Amino acid sequence: MALKRLKLIKWALVSTLSPLSQVFQLRAHMYQARSLFAADSSGLSDPFARVFFSTHSQVTEVLSETLCPTWDQLLVFDDVELFGEASELRDDPPIIVVELYDQDTVGKAEFIGRTFAKPTIKMCEEHYGPPRFPPQLEYYQIYRGNCTAGELLAAFELLQVQDIFNPPTLKFSSLLTIFPHLLNCCVSLVQVLFWGLRDLKRINLAQVDRPRVDIECAGRGVQSALIQNYKKNPNFSTLVKWFEVDLPENELLHPPLNIRVVDCRAFGRYILVGSHAVTSLRRFIYSAPDKTSNNWATAGADTDSFLIARSEYANFEDWLHTFNLYRGKAGDDDEHALDDDRIVGRFKATDLHPADINGKADPYVVIKLGKSEVKDKENYISKQLNPVFGKSFDIEATFPMESMLTVSVYDWDLVGTDDLIGETKIDLENRFYSKYRATCGISSNYSVHGYNVWRDPLKPSQILTKLCKDGKIDGPHYGPGGKVKVASRIFLGPTEIEDENGTVTEEHLALNVLNHWEEIPRVGCKLVPEHVETRPLLNVDKPGIEQGRIEMWVDMFPMDMPAPGPAIDISPRKPKSFELRVVIWNTDDVILEDDAFMTGEKMSDIYVRGWLKGQQEDKQDTDVHYHSLTGEGNFNWRFVYPFDYLMAEEKIVISKKESMFSWDETEYKIPPRLTLQVWDADHFSADDFLGAIELDLNRFPRGAKTAKQCSLNMIRNEHELPTISIFKQKRVKGWWPFVARDENDEMELTGKVEAELHLVTAEEAEKSPVGLGRNEPDPLEKPNRPDTSLMWFLSPLKSIRYFIWHNYRWLILKALGLILLLLMLGLFLYSVPGYLVKKMLGA
């Protein structure tokens, strides 16, 4: 009996220590998924979802060949036992894991992606009703590793069960009955304009010949007309088709729009060419302002506010949308490429990805349009990551066969094939038919002469008349006083400007209306201005990684219109050749570094060195002023530096080989800076650096008139002092300080230099040449330097002069003055007694 009581006590103790157990029912409302990972070679999947919760799991049904499955299925998990306090479970519910798989006929299912969710918990004492129940459907992001693999629209609720033998039941399993708001649908008319197919790839080495487009949404759909010969004409014969579909009023619940392109083969066979899933219908929703209007094309022109624009002009998809078709199994490392969000024109490239082992590239441009290809390989730019191509290409094209312009940048290689750096593609057809008039940018000014001459074959007045006619609006009506009326708007502008024939023109007034065309009611929009924009360069081998940018623009002119004006000259600017002549006249107050061997006096053997930045190999030195005891040096020495200069960029252009193994020269652009240094020459050791000054030839402080006025403030307060440019002043002379850093890294004055800078063009230099140093032609006079020989026995008086007089001249002068005063006082004292005696004797 005692043993039995002990067992009961032990059982009771264990029962009190075990965690609390709660029983729940999980309801997983699986509505649909969209933009799933393509797991089959057809570019589609046969998806199903598996839901894991605690120790339970269930699966949805399998839907065949779709990337946007709609299951509309409820999964119920009964008798789910969870451990913990009820309050803890409510505040922090367990995680639900949802995995999506692709069902294969042979082999096991293939993993598509995974997502996590938290359910909405209802305890047994709570009421099941709004606002928390039933829970709202939400989108959950599906991940496949680090990449996104789609979205899942679902809702999860966890209900506590009070009586495990009588759990809550549902009468219906369809989400449309559980969520009544899903039943709020409206009949929508889906109108489709089938324009054409472009750039279809081969299928198993066979070309696509008779393609057709199938469009499906919520179980309803439409088929396009069959293209009988894709190679000859890739456009559809029948353009507009439509079908009706029931769409929920809640845009979040809209089904996807599936686009499939098939190739119709012999014997009724259909081969999938590619597919595309439009996951959001928001940008295509349009409510007609007039129910009686049946002009579908006119209504579509006003849908801009619903477009998800990728640029200011919605990528010129204002009336046609381009959908990329995909076929084949997606890779795990596939990433979304960057959007080509601008339509621009060719001019130069920036920040190119290095393609050679030296960290540079030798880029050139390749233009491809249909079967036409232009390679500018012979004009490659050596070792540049920011090349300026400055090229203009004229190519004839025929729509719709030749509508995709590809601009590629390749790296030139001496041996082997050239490497693709990146490319960008431009849909010319979208530009040509766009209402934004993207064929030729509208200039801000109308000029008939000069570098910015009007190049459109139509004048502004002709363009304005055509726009008014196409938009069916009244105008233009030109009136006196520079007025023009278009529709209900009146614009003002200049009219007193005469054209090339000497008559008053209204082109400037019409151009003002074009630049404000967006103010016109109903049909107004911002017309594409004259522009240079930037497009990213992409490489299919490096998806999602920008390989640089290219600046460019494209003009299109129909062949049945008058020929356009001459193309704008955008060739790279050519540098202008100059010659800088620097005359070093004198130095002063140069610090003394050496000690005289005989006397120990401070002295320096001074010379000046100079060069232009980037041309260090062309350093030039003056001769040496030996044994300077005062820091003064006399040179009368000329430096001559020829160089090429770009006025617009304010840079010196230097072309030279990087090394002896380089195949060709590399171009460098360097700021024009003149460096002058003062040195102390030594016979048996390295020369000593004393100081330097660097002058930016575009802006440097004006030289002082005298050596005394030259100070360190000319360097310290350089930004506050007025500056000059040698390219404007041409000739300047003055004193500038030499500076150096001391032990405390502070700037100190180490000397002064009197120099003259003279800039001449290459033509002027050829007409009036000068020699280096003091050489012919136009030689400089030899400076009058003092003889500072240290041989006492050869010239003792000169040595006394430079060693004694220089250091003790004030003391000597004072001593001489004092001696003179003493002599005068002695003579006075000597002559005073005799003078007094003579006065007394009356002599």
TrEMBL record:
GO BP, sorted A to Z: plasma membrane organization; synaptic vesicle priming
One Gene Ontology cellular component: synaptic vesicle membrane
Compartment(s): Membrane
Name of this protein: Otoferlin a
CDD domains given in the database record: C2D_Ferlin, C2E_Ferlin, C2F_Ferlin
Family annotation (SMART domains): C2
Species classification: Eukaryota, Metazoa, Chordata, Craniata, Vertebrata
Family: Belongs to the ferlin family.
InterPro entries linked to this entry: C2_dom, C2_domain_sf, C2D_Ferlin, C2E_Ferlin, C2F_Ferlin, Ferlin, Ferlin_C, Ferlin_DSRM
Residue ranges annotated for the C2 domain, each copy included: 5-133, 322-441, 560-711
Protein's membrane topology: Single-pass membrane protein
PROSITE patterns: C2 (PS50004)
Keyword DNA damage included in the entry's annotation: no
